[in-house]
Each structure stands twice: as structure tokens, then as C-alpha cells.
Amino acid sequence: MKNRYVIGVDVGSGSVRAGIFDQNGNSLAIASSPIKIRKPHQNFVEQSSEDIWLNLCKVVKEVIISSKVKPEEILGIGFDATCSLVTLDKNDNPISISPDNDPYWNIIMWMDHRADKETDEINTKGHEVLKYVGGKVNIEMEIPKIMWLKRNLPENFKKIQHFFDLADFLQYKACGSTIRGACTVTCKWNYLSHEQSWNEDFLKQCDLLDLLEGDKIGTKIQAPGTKLGTLTTEVAELMGLTSKTIVATGLIDAHAGALGASGGVIEDNLVIIAGTSACHILNTQNPVFVPGVWGPYYNAMISNLWLNEGGQSAAGALLDYTIRNHYFYPQLVSMAEQMNTSLYNILNQEVSKIYTKNPTPTKDIHILDYHLGNRSPRSDASLKGMVSGLSFDEDLESLTTLYLATIQSICYGTKYIVDTCKENGHSIKKISVCGGATKNPLWLQELANITQYTIEIPKEVEAVLLGSAIVAATASDIWDNMGLALKNMSHIEQFIRPNTSDQDFHQQKYSVYLEMYKDQQKYKKLMQQYQ
């Protein structure tokens, strides 16, 4: 069969990347470019749609040149992005979302926490819509952010003609279609995909019924992998493609990763996209309601399936933080430079040495990984991290032990999500992992040991890009449906099997992990009179 090609584009928090893949999921070339972020005030994190679009077109053009594939052989393009909020006026000009009123900055990033009061207000009122987000909206979602805009920047709010999730904005720029993706609006906007409608009563409760005027938040919603149209002539020229290139309905970045890392198996396969933070995605035939876990969402990733999404607000970011804040960190950096290796390679080697002397080196040090709050299943952004068992030790061994305890804590957080999902009706038959965690063999082995699941690693390292390529291949009719595209393009290459010898130890440490949360609630109660 003659090779047919598609492009996957991923807009992460700090960069935009493009990859070109053939119909069997083989990567030919990848290009990347950094994008701007600014933090003008505490809890404010913003980006520019203009900056992102310019860099996106740049990396697409670069990847085509690198791959040496002819533009006419590239049949489709798919986009994924962080769940960030983009604002445009009736002429598609950016509208400022910041008090300084600079329109260049027109994106409220997913990690922006300005809408804390609005989030609490929505959750306090407890509308029935919240049943489909695990009982609470999260501060990362879009409706609280839009409420904040209406209350704090009312004149700007009136000028906004289009509110887009970032992936939907990219599709709009590429082909002019205002159709939104079921993934974005269902997972982050409280759209009820199973009813194919926005809940007017909920929007009225939020004083946002005016969002239904015109096409501000989308009147047509399509499942991922649907053909939206083709690139406009202008965009095709900017990207180095042709105007026959098909544009697919895309995804949130984590969900693209879940497609790329699935190994072609979707149902009852927990896919963990673990990097700076971590997302945990499950698809089922029937809806499963899990308190504190987002969803169930219909059609959000695969047509006719229901999706639940758990998450950990800090994963790799917590490891980085732990290492940086130890006394021995500068010496560790010096060692890595001298040995021409990474900090993590040194620490993993040290963990191996410690394990040969002591099979339970972290028995007296316990960590609660809530440094950035808890996304699932407690769904509480106000929670804090905790450490028990600190000493005055300043050497490499103390840093290594703390590092290992942090990895274990993150894995206990994952186990808590897994256990909660299973207790509420999920049948989890396998776990696949993609993202930065796949570069850390210690993290993967501890995850296998703690969850007692074999951890499956995809062949394609860039699973998120592959996920967007898969939706492009589906929309372009390279494969007749998403199931066939997944079967032919997503492949598992590595298996990390659990050790059973330390099950009792981890169960005891997991019990301590759960108790630490209870202890924190006791401390809060004792101090509640002080605001």
C-alpha cells in the first residue's frame, strides 16, 4: 500500500510541536518551538493566540521540510491543545482577558487560578449538571473563567464574539469552521454531549445565558476525528500544505495522549498521561459516576463511549521541586555536569544502591503530594502538600531517599484514583502510560509495584502527537473509523511488570498516605477561626 501521511499538532503549556506520521503510526519528523507565557499577577497565567498561531505554522512548515514528504501526500491535520480559554471579537481580533487591557494576551491558561470565587460559587449551588464532572467544577475549567471575565472586565466581555477552547481555536484558524469538538466542550465547558445540548438553567444560574446568543460557545458539536473542512488557501500557504488538506475535529492534549498510548485497546484501559501533571483516562460502554473524578463524558474521545478523567495536579513538577529544594541540589547539578548525564540518572542509580542495603528505605518518610491541591478524587484546590520524617541530613543519600519517597507518593495518588474508580464500578484491566514518566524507569517500576498492574509503554514516544495524527487519519478516511485507526497506528512496545515482594510495605505506606489527608483536615479545623 502506498504510504499516506497526516500531521499531528500539539500545543502544550510551553511549546507547540508538530509531527508527521504515516498510516501505520510511524513518525517521520518532529519539530518544536517555544511559546510565550506571562504571569502579570498572582494566580494569573496568560498566553497569546497570535504567538501560538505563528509558531504553529512555523513548526508545521519545518516538519514537512524535514520529512521530505510532498505536501500533496499529506491528507489531513489534527490539533490538540491545553484546555485554555481564547477570546476573539466579531472581526477575529484578540480581546484582552487581563486588567491591563493588552489585547495581545487573550488566553487564560488552564493553570490560571483567578476564578477561585466563581468556582466555589458554582460548586456551592450544586446544579445537577455537576453530576457529569464528578460533583464539582474544577478551577481549570472554562465556565468559572468566563464568569470572572464578565464580572471583572465587563466591557471586554461585551466585545467577545467567540469563546474558544484552544484546540477549537486552532481548527477555526485552520479552516474557518466554528464547530467545536465534543472533547473540549464536554470535558471543560459543562456541555452535555449525551443530550447534545447546553443546559440553559445552569448557564442562567451562572449569569451566562447570553453565551447562547449567536455562536459564542458553539452551536454545532462534533466527535473527535470528524472532518471539519479543508485548510484555507491562506493557511495552506503559511503551513506549506495544500488547500485539499483535511482538518479534523481535535482534542485536549491529554486525550490525544490517551489515543496515542492506548495500544489500540480503549475500553477498560486506564491511560495515564504523566508529565508535569498527570491525567488518568478511562473509556467505557456505559456511564460510570465516580465522585471527584471528571465525567462521565459522552463522545469525548471515542464515538459512543463514555469517558472518565482523573488527574494529579503535580507529578513531574513535584519531583523537580523536591530535588531543587534540597541542600544537596547544587552538588547534584555539578555531578551531572561532570558525568555528562541527567540528575535523574544519578538519583536512580543511587536508589538502586540504597535498595541493595535496605529494601524499605522510605519507611520513616511520608509525603502527601497535594502541593498544588488535589484534582482527583478529592477535587480540592486548597489542599496542601505534607512531609513527615525530615531530618538535618544534607547528603546525597538523604536527597535520594526523599526523591524515592516523592515518587512513591505520586504513585500512591495514582493508586487512590484507581481504587476509587474500581470501587465505583470501573473494571480496569490494564494500565498504559505515556509522557515524561516513560523516561524514568524508577517511576514506572514503583507505579507497577504500588498498583500491582503491568505498565504498558507505547512504541511512539510522542504519544500526544500521534493521538492528533490518529484523528487526522480518521477524518481523512485513511482508516474507516477511529477503532481501525487506533489498531493500526498505536502500538505497545514495553511492559513493566510488578514485583510482589514489597506489597505489604506499600500497603502500609499507602495507609499512612491516606491518614495524612485526614490529619490535614484536623489541623484545618483547629485553625479555622483564623482567616
Number of strands: 22
Return the average pLDDT rounded to an integer.
96
Rg calculated over all Cα atoms? 23 Å
Helical percent range? 25-40%
**N- to C-terminal distance:** 68 Å
Q: Overall 3D geometry?
A: globular
Structural class: alpha/beta
How large a portion of the residues is in β-strands, by DSSP E?
A: 15-25%
**Unreliable spans:** none
User: What count of helical segments does DSSP give?
Assistant: 17
Characterize the biggest β-sheet: 7 strands, mixed
Can you tag this structure with a few keywords?
17 helices, seven-stranded mixed β-sheet, alpha/beta, 531 residues
Describe this structure as you would to a colleague.
With 531 residues, this protein is an alpha/beta fold. It is 38% helix and 19% strand. The protein has 17 helices and 22 strands. Strands 1, 2, 3, 5, 11, 12 and 13 form a 7-stranded mixed beta sheet that branches. β1 (5-11) and β2 (15-22) form a beta hairpin. α12 (343-357) packs across α13 (396-423), α13 (396-423) crosses α14 (441-451) and α15 (463-475) crosses α16. The N and C termini lie far apart (68 Å). The model has no long low-confidence stretch (mean pLDDT 96).
